[in-house]
Amino acid sequence: MAIASHLADQPSRYPKSTSTRVGLVDASLNADQALLHDLGDVVPGLQELVDLHRTANPTKDEVRDFFWFSPRHGYDILPGLRRHRDWSTLRRRTTLAALASIHRSFDFVVADSDADFEGESETGSIDIEDRNLLARELARNADLVVLTARAGITGLSRALQNLRELAELDIETERILLVILGAPRSTRHRSELARTILRLFDETVPSHSLPIPVMVPLRRDLEPFIHDGTPPPRSAFGSITAAVSERLQQVEPRDSRPSFQTAPIAIIPGHLGRTA
């Protein structure tokens, strides 16, 4: 929410456009952006947009019709899956086509996805790769991946596991922004935590180097904003949005033509193939 609101205030990358169009895609298997933004309904949403690409190649305006504009936040929202199990209705070819359409329909696209990037090569299961299709493809094609983690033993352990999986997806570490939530307020303790994370990452993935993570202290006064569906104060996430802007200026943008497309997969003799 904070990142999408911040990008909505940026100038449009299209000279003739009077405002910046930002699309927030709820790509999580347990979608909750419709609830957090108090949309009132979840139809149409991601499933309907994917279904449209079975038989049509929609225009930008037709794609935007599936998004819900939030005047309080200043961006458009695409509601996600209504049930966790509905991932099984998303066919690979039409899902990738829908992601490509979203990419070309907005100035900026922000996606809320799961941190589960395992695929067939890691698990031997095509079903698992299909379940994680949204997270894998969005991470591969993102200019910047913002990975959030809780400060603490379990949070840092999961963050290191996610960072290793992102590296296995061939995502450059300069395109990864690690955000530690609930970080200590003491500058000395933050420095110690950052050094620990960088050292553990170097031991886990020695072939990559991780940029310094962003530390965000715990705030207990944000629940009323979430309850009312209003944007949180900018001061609450100023360090995150500032880091996002800085990193986006440092990295080279991905190709304007996204690689959301199905590619032929070589079939090993004696093995079963797969369909899109």
Automatic annotation (TrEMBL):
Protein name: Unannotated protein
InterPro entries registered for this protein in UniProt: P-loop_NTPase (IPR027417)
Species the sequence originates in: freshwater metagenome
